[in-house]
Structure formats: C-alpha cells, structure tokens
Amino acid sequence: xxxxxxxxxxxxxxxxxxxxxxxxxxxxxxxxxxxxxxxxxxxxxxxxxxxxxxxxxxxxxxxxxxxxxxxxxxxxxxxxxxxxxxxxxxxxxxxxxxxxxxxxxxxxxxxxxxxxxxxxxxxxxxxxxxxxxxxxxxxxxxxxxxxxxxxxxxxxxxxxxxxxxxxxxxxxxxxxxxxxxxxxxxxxxxxxxxxxxxxxxxxxxxxxxxxxxx
Length: 214
Description:
Elements: E1 2-4, E2 13-20, E3 23-26, E4 32-34, E5 43-53, E6 58-67, E7 74-79, E8 84-87, E9 92-99, E10 103-112, E11 115-120, E12 126-129, E13 135-145, E14 150-160, H1 163-200
Domain CopC: 79-157
Protein name: CopC domain-containing protein
Pfam family, one: CopC
C-alpha cells in the first residue's frame, strides 16, 4: 500500500512524521510512503501525517483505511496434460494460468534428463521448451502474492525418440547379424561340396590277386 502526501512550505519544515496505528516513521523530504498493510494485521488502519516548521508550528492530516486479507492466488498448468508424450524433435509449450491480485512473482521449474532449471515467467501465459533429451520431465508452476501466499501447480510430460530414429537404429543393429548368417551358410555349403566332389573322384579298389597254381 502506498500513501501519497504533500506539505506546503516544505523548505521551512524541521520534521515530518507519518504514523500508522501508533507506529511512527520519519518521512522528511518524502512525498510518498509504501508499506505492507498485512504486517499491521487485518482491520482498521489509523494514519496521520504531522509536520513541524522552524517556528514550532505543527500541522496534522489524518485518514483511515481498512486492511482486508487478499484472496489466495490460484495457479494452473493448462498444458501439457499429465503424462503427455512428445517426439524428441517437437517443442513443448507449457500453458500457464493464474488468478489473484498483487502478485510478486511467477516461476516455472523444470526437472528431468536435460537438468533442472527455474524460469521467471511473470506476466506470461505460456512458455516453450525445446531440444529436450528423451525421458520424463516434471513441471512446477508457482505463483506468489504480495502477502507471501503461494499457489502451486504441477504436471509431467515424456519425451520419446522419434519413429525414424528407432527404425534407423534397428537397421544398423540387425544388418551385420544377417550378413554373418549368410556368410556362415555359404562357407558351410562350400566345404560340404568339396568333400562330396572329392569322394566322387576316388578310383575303385584293385581286384584281389589270384591264388598261385598248384
């Protein structure tokens, strides 16, 4: 809360004092004063400004305010949906929604395989993430009010390898195995063929010699 004030003939003043519920502040030479109304408790605030000049003449102005508690802020991650999957070549747009007055900050925290980071998203309705490694990521969106109240929303999403990358990996892995099987089959067939061929070229055994004549 900010109070604006002015005093005529300010160059002749010796003191300016602002009092809020019996707490006094020196505001000499100032034209405004900012304070946290909630620190005085909720309810009536009696405010007075007293000015004194060189002749000892004083003047005072008063006013009253009533401090009411601020509503608790709300925070919501509208996208992605919890557990939603994205290809590794895609970017992820995080949708942000909040309600509440006098917010002092909004932050988006990302944690996952690509590391942890905290992003200042004050005043933003969305934030886009890109070039993320495969795996599961956690999002935390935090909104803070001037009264120190916080609202938190969380979500998760998953980055998966694209189908094209999977196909390429399988082809690279399977091909050498297929070639090895073909090569083994060819060698085995060649060896068997040689053995069969050699067995066909052997000469028949010579006949047994006749017994000597009697």
